[in-house]
Amino acid sequence: SLLYYNHAWCAASLSQTINQVAASRQKHTLPDLPYDYGALEPHINAEIMQLHHSKHHATYVNNLNVTEEKYKEALAKGDVSAQVALQPALKFNGGGHINHSIFWTNLSPNGGGEPQGELMEAIKRDFGSFQKMQEKMSATAVAVQGSGWGWLGYEKESGRLRIVACANQDPLQGTTGLIPLLGIDVWEHAYYLQYKNVRPDYIKAIWNIINWENVSERLQTAKK
Ligand SMILES: *[C@@H]1O[C@H](CO)[C@@H](O)[C@H](O)[C@H]1NC(C)=O
Ligand SMILES: *[C@@H]1O[C@H](CO)[C@@H](O)[C@H](O)[C@H]1NC(C)=O
Ligand SMILES: *[C@@H]1O[C@H](CO)[C@@H](O)[C@H](O)[C@H]1NC(C)=O
Ligand SMILES: [Fe+2]
C-alpha cells in the first residue's frame, strides 16, 4: 500500500518529547535558523520560511512555555486532574517544537544531491537505491492525510532505516525505537503560499535542499 503510517512510532516519538519536556528546567526558546529566510529560494520562498519559523514554530514554543508553567503549578498543588488535562497541550506543543527544530537543520541552501558514506550504504541496503528511498519517502509524504510529517528514521532494534508517515492526530501509545533522522513537514503552512494545494511539487522541490550532512550526523548519533 502507499501509506506507511506507524502510529506506535509517531506516538512513541511524542512520548519521548514529553520526557524531554518534563526534564527541562528552563523555558524553551525559538532556535535561530542556520540560514536566512530567503536562503532556500526558489525551493521554499522567504515568506513561507518567515511565517513558518517566526509565527508557527514560535507559537509552539510560547504555548509550550505557558503550558509547562501551568503544569508545574498543578504538580505543586497535587492537582492530578489538571495535570492530565494539560497533557495534550504539552504533547502537541512539545512535539511541534522538537519536530521543527529537527526540520530546520535538515535543510540547507547548500543541500541536495546524494548522501555519502555510511548513510548512503544504509539507504542502499534498506531501500535498494537512493532513488527508491526518495520515491518511497515522497509517496509517503504526499499521501499523509491532512496535516502531518514524513520521516526517515533509524530503528535501533534492527539497525535499519525506515520511512513512516505521522498524522497530526496520532494517539499516544506503544514503544518502538525509531529515531528521527529526516522529517518533511507536510502541514499546509509549510508550502501553501508557494505551491497552493500541489503538495507533490513541494516534495519534489525539497530534495534540492536536504542537508545530508545533518542527516548523516543524526545517524551517527542514533547508532551510539
Ligand atoms: C518562552 O517563554 C519565555 C518566558 O515567558 C520567553 O522569554 C521566551 O521568549 C518564550 N519563547 C518564545 C519563543 O517566545
Ligand atoms: C511531530 O512529529 C510527530 C512524529 O514524530 C507527530 O506524530 C506529531 O503530530 C508532530 N507534531 C506536530 C505539532 O507537528
Ligand atoms: C545537525 O543538527 C544538529 C542538531 O540540531 C546540529 O547540532 C548539527 O550542527 C547539525 N549538523 C550539520 C552538519 O548541519
Ligand atoms: Fe510546520
UniProtKB/TrEMBL annotation:
Homotetramer. Its main location: mitochondrion. It is an enzyme of class 1 (oxidoreductase). This is Superoxide dismutase. Its EC number is 1.15.1.1. Pfam families: Sod_Fe_C, Sod_Fe_N. Residues 27-108 form the Manganese/iron superoxide dismutase N-terminal domain. It comes from Amphiprion ocellaris.
